[in-house]
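Bit of a strange request maybe. I'm writing a small parser for structure token strings and I need a real example to test against, not something I typed by hand. Could someone generate the tokens for this chain?
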Amino acid sequence: MLNSFSIRLGKLAVVFAASCAMAAVAQAQGAAGAGTGGTMVASALPTAANASPRAARPSPSYSDNDDSMSAKDRLIWIADSTIGWPSLAWGVVSAGIGTAENHPRAYGTHWDGFADRYGIRLSGVVTSNVVEGGFGALWGENPRYKPEPDKSFGGRLGSVVYQTFFTRRSDGHFAPAYARFIAIPGTNFMSNTWRVQDEADTPHALERTGYGFAGQMGANAFHEFWPSVKSHLFHHGGS
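Reply from user aminoacidic:
Good idea to test on real output. This should exercise your parser:
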């Protein structure tokens, strides 16, 4: 049991370490003053198989710097964070890891098991995003990450962590991300009702919850620093 706990803790550390590594690369290439294009890309960094991380792709209908969200914006955010290509692509990766590790064992290591893992993850992503988007509307929460390109590296990294647990309101101020606190733990515990017995318990639900917040933090880091990395890569590609 201790070994299993160590493995889970190690996976969580990998998520955060990968986020910091991406940030360090951006800093080394002059991250300050980067652009702010794009929207959340959750699960672009490693998370647990069958966890419920979030993702989104850029949408032309709004800007990350817009503090308020219309009903249409929320529907777009829910759709993008559920079926945007980063989310679907990461589903392939996480289901592949679960199949290779044969976790949970009830699904097996065949293609049907891969499909089951992919489907169970997607069901969690859908539920979590709908809950966060819906409840967030009650408090005027804006779940999109707001880039801080003018801050120092430390300030930007702090924003990555801060905006994991706090979201903007329509007037621009930040407050606790109540809808996210409901969505991630709530849907992971709720999913125990349709998961196989091997992972339908409190410890696994808590583990998935941890991965959900770690994945959110990784998504924030990607969103904050990827424009700098991309700009550097394109600059060198054109030179």
